[in-house]
Design brief:
- The chain is 37% helix and 18% strand.
- The strands form three sheets. Strands 4-3-2-5-1-6-7-8 form an eight-stranded mixed beta sheet, sandwiched between helices. The chain has a six-stranded mixed beta sheet with strand order 12-13-17-14-15-16, with helices on both faces. Strands 9-10-11 form a three-stranded antiparallel beta sheet.
- The protein contains 15 helices and 17 strands.
- The chain is an alpha/beta fold.
- The two termini are 30 Å apart.
- The chain is globular and about 60 Å long.
- It folds into two domains: 217 residues, Mur-like, catalytic domain (UDP-N-acetylmuramoyl-L-alanine:D-glutamate ligase); 138 residues, Mur ligase, C-terminal domain (Protein-Tyrosine Phosphatase, Chain A).
Amino acid sequence: MKFPVTASRRAADGHHRGVDYQDCVTILEKVHENPSGLPRRVRQANVARLLAALGRPERGLRGMLVVGTNGKGSTCAFAVSAVAATGARVGSMPSPHLQEPRERIRIDGAPVTRAEYAAAFTEVWEAVERDHLPVLAQGLHATTAAVHFRQSGTSLAVAEASIGGSRAAARELDLDVKVVTGIGLDHVRLLGGSLAHVARAKVEAAQDGDHVVLGRLDPEAASVAAQVLKERSGLSVWRMDHEIRYTARTVGGAGDRGPTTLVDVTTPRGVHRDLPCPLAGAHQHHNLAVAIAAVDAMAERGHIREPEGGRLRAGLAATSWPGRLELVPEARLGDWTGRVLLDGATNPQGVTTVAPEILRHTLTTERPGRPPVLVFSAFKEKNVSGMLAPLPAQWPLVLTRTNSHETADPADLRSRLASAGRGPCVTAEDTPAALHRAGDLAGPGGLIVVIGSHRLVGEARTALGLPPV
């Protein structure tokens, strides 16, 4: 698959021309269709060959790879804030993106420009074509990030695995601190239909000699993790509620800037007190503790200096992570104005975790006859009944589709939910139409809750006029 004719890669004099960012986006969309027809495992295996063809851009990278079912993005955001507080320049690779692919490559938390993304992507795609190395889209994302880090002289990285762990493209970057945020039942078609299968797929990201940080795990997942790690040699392992502990408390209130959550985190390396947790939800206290333990592991290995307490607290206080319990307090959709709450929970465990915060937002919004309205979309394989179960059945539901080829048809979603006993349910052809329909149902000043997929959240942010961040 060649670059589009509008993006000539080589000028007549042999000098490189810039490739348009939109051409990169188009190629990524085509890659999802697998035009080569190669099995997934073959395209996964080509990532290592592609990195070799690119001259090993990952060589010299140090840092952490974060895997898990939920909480990876928030954990990475906290970790980037903490590493940047040491004064070091840090690259990161969140997955997935919400609005634009360039969000997957960040320096000190900020996405690269379209021109920077296109420059790195061009180098990668030329190698794919030259050496006939088709990869999955996640392989393109990981190798493009590695190339940009080399181009920009960035040697520290916080990388997020997409699906799985042992087969994740980002594992090929050979980062020696491995973090497992938690294990839940998701992506069963690819990872297996039991918690044990999913745990093995995630924890097998660890390699000999790594420093492994384990978040809080279900007993079954913890047992499998222990078995997998026994198969490795030379590991250092820190586990939540064992080597890692944390406590959280709320301070402040009326008369100041409002309540603040402070977290104390203890690791084998020391105690970090009064760490602010600006992301909403009790689950973020755990994610913050995991991130701090991982940063301590990086310091233990000599990758970074120990973060100074004041700078660490200031950096963490500024942490944000769009699309995760993100409230748009003055949203406008045509003639409608109200509030929109966005969350990228994509599985029953994730929705159950954020449901208390969603319900908290309704306390100041819900009115007789005008409850909050859900806008929902999900991938075809998802347990949609389980995802919606934690939320009130009487809330009106607008089912829609995103522009992803993996998204479920709204009519199919409606059929699958017919026996779930949910309240009013309508369908909409796309995300903007779904938001406008939800605004009609919620009424002026009402609350719309957008949930079910990261792609849906991204399209909603675009429809609301919010820029990629």
